[in-house]
Amino acid sequence: MLTDEPRSKSEKVATIDEISEAIEKLHPEEWAKLRAYAKNRAHMMALYGGALDAEDLVQCAIIALLEQRRTWNPKKVTFIGVLMGAMKSIASNHKEKSLKSGYSVSESQLASGNENDESETPVTLHPDSRLNPEQQMLVSEDEQETVRFVENLYAFFGEDLEALLVMDCWKEGLSGTEIIQTLEIDRKAYETIVKRIRRKNTAQWPKGSSHVS
Amino acid sequence: MSAKKHWTREDAERVLDHLADSIETGAAAEIAADLKDSGHDLNDVASRMKAAALAGVKEYRQQRLHHARQRYQESSLKIERRTRRIGGSREERRQRFFSVIEAKPELKSALTMQHRDLNELTDTDIDSALEELEILGALEDLDDSDS
Question: Both A37 and A84 in a single domain?
Fold first, then answer.
């Protein structure tokens, strides 16, 4: 079980040897899954000024586990499960820090302007005042690049109306169950559409490169 | 489909979050197959990720080693300073003790509560008084004022 809560005496903390052994035991398919997840979370972090790639993120997750900031009970959760949990936590902590520091501003805090106004995006409206203009530009570029990445993913679907509808629902903040009800489809059909979107997302990765874009 | 011209950061984040859920619950073999089908080299992906994970282990080991070395150096320095401050011959230690008392007369009253006459202090008393003065930082203060 992954947790940031204080540990009870009975909770087991993984040793360096156990973690090293778990790393050696992972299969290429499991590394592929981890990479997909790491890349996804790195993209999410890039929306809040993060500049990590998938490999950086998995490295951070391993260190967090070894520093015992997170516990791992192998009987309850798999090694990739604990690593994905650690990456999820790192990404959400990054977002929280970014919002708290005033670097990023949440959607609700943004002034409601004309949605079709192309002149300014939330990213360009709130650059970090502590960065010099060149750094601000680079950070904003990373954020906009990630937004464009998702926009391109959407555009990829062209005539696939089902996928476009599901992505529209995601965009609006609907849950899977709500989407199933709204689109009047069953869970299996929804999951098939989601897999299609996931596959296209993977196809968008540049080959051989480890950077998030 | 989408009425908005622009995607906001939050729109993109929601899509990424749903994709993350799908990856988390998806079968590793299926995700690996998607990767291969889109022209990625599975072995290359696996070896780069494994190398990054092992680099995390190595970094942690180095951090620990660095901290242990730092702690060792700090404690060695402490011992060295302590030896320098309360070391020396019996006469030197006695002399050092009285120098401190002279420089800090307020300590004298505390010590005379235990020993009516400081001249009656034995070598053992001097040693334990120096130890106490060292803990209180009084010897360090004296060294600072000397330098």
Answer: yes
Range of the domain at A201: 132-213
* Contact between A2 and A71 (Cβ < 8 Å): yes
> What total number of domains does chain A contain?
2
Q: Which residue has the tokens 């959760």?
A: A77
Q: Report the residue of chain B nearest A25, measured CA to CA.
A: B50
- B23, A42 in Cβ contact below 8 A? no
Pick the range with the lowest mean pLDDT from A27-41, A97-111, B18-32.
A97-111
Render pLDDT for B83-106 as a digit per residue (tens, 0 to 9): 777 778 888 888 888 888 888 877
Give the tens place of pLDDT for each residue, A160-169: 899 999 999 9
The CA-based angle A169-A175-A178, given to 5 degrees, is 80
Shortest distance, CA B75 to any CA of chain A (angstroms): 23
The span from the first CA to the last CA of chain B, in angstroms, equals 79
Segment 11-70 of chain B within 8 Å of chain A by CB: 11-24, 26, 28-32, 34-35, 37-46, 48-57, 59-61
